[in-house]
Amino acid sequence: MIRPSAKCVVVCLVAVFLGMLAGCASGPPIGNSIVQIAPSSALIAPGQSIQFEAIVNIPNASPLFQWEVNAVVGGSPSTGTITSAGIYTAPATAPAQLMQIGIRKQQGTSTITVYDPSHPAPGSVTSTQNPLVASYSIAIPAGASVYVKFGKDTTYGLSTSSVPAPSTGGTATVLVAGMLSSTTYHMQAVIQLPNGSQLMDSDQTFVTGAIPASVLPSITTQFTGVDTPSPGVELLSLIPNPTPNLLNAVATDLAGNVIWYYNLPAGAYPFPIKLLPNGHMLVVTGGSVNDIREIDLAGNIIHQITAQQVLASVADIPSFQNATWDGFNHDILLLPNGHLILLASIAFTMNNQPGIPDGTPVEGNALIDWDVQQGAAVWTWSTFDHMDLSYAPYGINDWTHGNAVIYSPDDGNLIFSMRNQNWIAKINYQDGKGDGTILWRFGPNGDFTLPNGQAPIEWNYGQHFPTVQSPNSSGVFSLMFFNNGNNRLVDSNNDICSSPGVVDCYSSVPILQLNEYDKTATVLWENVLSSSYSICCGDALVLPNGNVEFDVAYDIYTPNVSYIEEVTKTQSPELVWKMNVQGQLAYRGFRIPSLYPGQVWTTYAQQNMRKVPTH
Fold first, then answer.
1. pTM of whole model > 0.85?
2. Dist. CA 217–CA 206, nearest whole Å
């Protein structure tokens, strides 16, 4: 394939036509016209093909060249062949020497190495800026991929995701994470060749670094013996409360051992942190720093979004003019198209609003569809445009307090949790084409009704972290969330919990069936945490084994201790596993299958690697 410079396209085509008329179209060009051959080097497997192209810099150069391998036009069976179109095919057996791809009577060559499966070059393991993360590098041919098995002995036990080779072959690097500090690990690369065969690297060892005890979170766990915990690791977004200067973006095994962390700047905390499908982490930083970071497992920043970038992008949008920016917080959503939904707080000073004294600040929320490639906002939504200020169950200072947003794939809309409205709302987003209308509001004084006996006590109050629990996300579907229970109304008289003579406030974890057609809802399952009342934060998930996990972040009955529980999803839920976090607020804490998309780290494998304490 020939890629002439833009200025010579026309004259080159004329030259081709004239050459064909003269009967010499296959003849060599005149003079040295090659700037470079691309790619400049490649590592390919025996029998594999790769396309080369020549880039010319002389306007009247003919684009018809005679490709060579080691100075032989067309190549040979022992060194590989190359067509007149620049397609090189390696020999079936890897030759000992390197091959030079060139063009007859032209300058510039490209180097080809044919990968020898019988004598692969060993990989190497080095440390990274994170003492718990190793960098495993190994050369693999184009079209191949590699993953790493690792463990405390040569039975390994855990695996990373696969990493593809560079497009022209070469060194692939796998970041290996999920290890204890100050421990020797064995690891081995597994190479998947383009023909489907596998190769194993020799065993490598790596000694993880130490973590100062002074920065380790105070975490303990309990296995009750009821059922087996669902596989995976815990990903924690911790906030100093009251202990500062501890690691706060961490992953632990089910024994509570820290196996990965991201060291945020002093005074910053994850608000929250999420695992991305590409194996990176997405972090909203709260505290002293407020930005959005995509990081790899070693902690390298791959992409960053600052408040200044976003503010510049929305400066001309009326909804944001004269607003005070109070930062990214509480959640972030990756969309199927690669965009991000940013959740931010914005405030306005009210004047000439009925019932609100002039000069009163009101803080609400904005949702911003951020096109990462363009670095621009392509759709926005504001509570000030779509909601009534007269409805403020918790006052207008912190009017809405949005804390979670999820995507509804069935209709392309967004489901948004606003704890200070006691509402979960579906917003007309339609994959960026919607007008932002609120389609429904679920919660007290919203658009749905509950059966007699379930309202008002079963409504959501100060809720967090809604998730869809059915295959569909519209029509008739199931929704789960952590119901904090703030100011829960407990009877038909609308008595507020913990009032004199009224039941104490409590949190719960319900799964409800919502019917969008007739706006009815009913409780399908609920874990009533009658002795727990978490006034903020938290989350809830159904785990792959069918159990339910939830984060009780700020229980007034356990000061300075957050706890995460896995329970059976039965009529009378039983405790399977519990994690206590002392001195930090577990804003979010939930199970992920592993630190690598597509990999599930079983409890059994982790227990083989670690001493699992019992309590």
1. yes
2. 24
